[in-house]
Amino acid sequence: MSDLFRGTTALITGASRGIGAAFADLLAQRGANLVLVARHADTLNPIAERARGRGARVTVIPADLTRPDAPDDIADATVRDGLTIDHLINNAGLGGAGRFQDVPIAEQLPTIEVNVRALTALASLFLPGMLQRSRGGS
């Protein structure tokens, strides 16, 4: 049986733990190569090593998605490394705690930056190439 992911490259945001790390493990097991994104390289490195142990080529890109320039930096890094992104897994996300009226706006805006702006920007950066190649997914 053919596997959709074998020999492709998946970019996973929020890859350092939880669902993102589980995606990395599963996709490496299915033969995908990975681009792992999270705030800190040191939290990504153990995930990357597990994937490499399964035969995946892995690129680690530390990026803070609350920064407006982070999606462009990620896309630039993939171009610089000669990577074609076949699958985009926009897994990174933030969630605040407390009642809206009790949380200062400065604490709420990073959630919007990650959960809305960054994932929209990443999709707009990588989707055109997927459409041009007639393969891939976001």
Description:
This protein has 4 helices and 4 strands, in the order βαβαβαβα. The protein has helices at 18-29, 41-53, 70-80, 105-133; strands spanning 9-13, 33-38, 58-62, 87-89. 47% of the residues lie in helices and 14% in strands. The model has no long low-confidence stretch (mean pLDDT 94). The chain starts with 8 loop residues before the first strand and ends in a 5-residue tail after the last helix. Strands 3-2-1-4 form a 4-stranded parallel beta sheet, sandwiched between helices. The protein is globular and about 50 Å long. α1 links the parallel β1 (9-13) and β2. The protein is of the alpha/beta class. It has one domain (9-133): NAD(P)-binding Rossmann-like Domain (Rossmann fold).
The biggest beta sheet reads: 4 strands, parallel
CATH class: Alpha Beta
**What distance lies between the first and last C-alpha atoms, to the nearest angstrom?**
23 Å
Q: How many DSSP E strands? A: 4
List the defining traits of the structure above.
4 helices; 4-stranded parallel sheet; single chain; 138 residues; alpha/beta
